């Protein structure tokens, strides 16, 4: 059985919804164990035990959210040279851009020698005022569908041995 690890963090619920949509779709693939874990509860042993990864994070101030960065800080060196070539994908929830967080995730994944298997998905909430930025988010059904497609595709590729 292959294991897909979905690591997420969310301040206002958007990234959590995205991660849950991806996990639900991935769980439909036979032969895949899906572990949906908050970034603060994910440790090097979890990363080493997985066969593939989906990283789901909000973008804050043009950067990956701090708790996702903390996750990568804690697992990077214990995983370095031990997970080379494993597949990954990334989902980012952002108010207006998202590319800063994507760049950070891609740079870290490159350092870990992970293999991207889907283009990063950025879901924009268009939150621009302080009130809108801090408000709980509801991700649109079509965006959750795109998250689900990435989760299902990653799980299917792992199950089939494509990556």
3D architecture notes:
- Strands 1, 2, 3, 4, 5, 6 and 7 form a 7-stranded mixed β-sheet that branches.
- The chain contains 6 helices and 7 strands.
- Strand 3 and strand 4 form a beta hairpin.
- The chain is α/β, with parallel strands linked by helices and 163 residues long.
Compact summary:
The protein is α/β, with parallel strands linked by helices and 163 residues long.
**SSE-based structural type:** alpha/beta
The total of beta strands comes to 7
What is the H/E order?
EHEHEEHEHEEHH
Predict the CATH topology.
Answer: Rossmann fold
Helix and strand arrangement:
Blueprint: E1 2-8, H1 14-26, E2 32-38, H2 44-49, E3 52-60, E4 63-64, H3 66-79, E5 87-94, H4 99-111, E6 115-116, E7 121-124, H5 130-134, H6 141-160
Parallel strand pairs: 1-2, 1-3, 3-5, 5-6, 5-7
Antiparallel strand pairs: 3-4
Throw out a few tags for this protein.
163 residues; alpha/beta; Rossmann fold
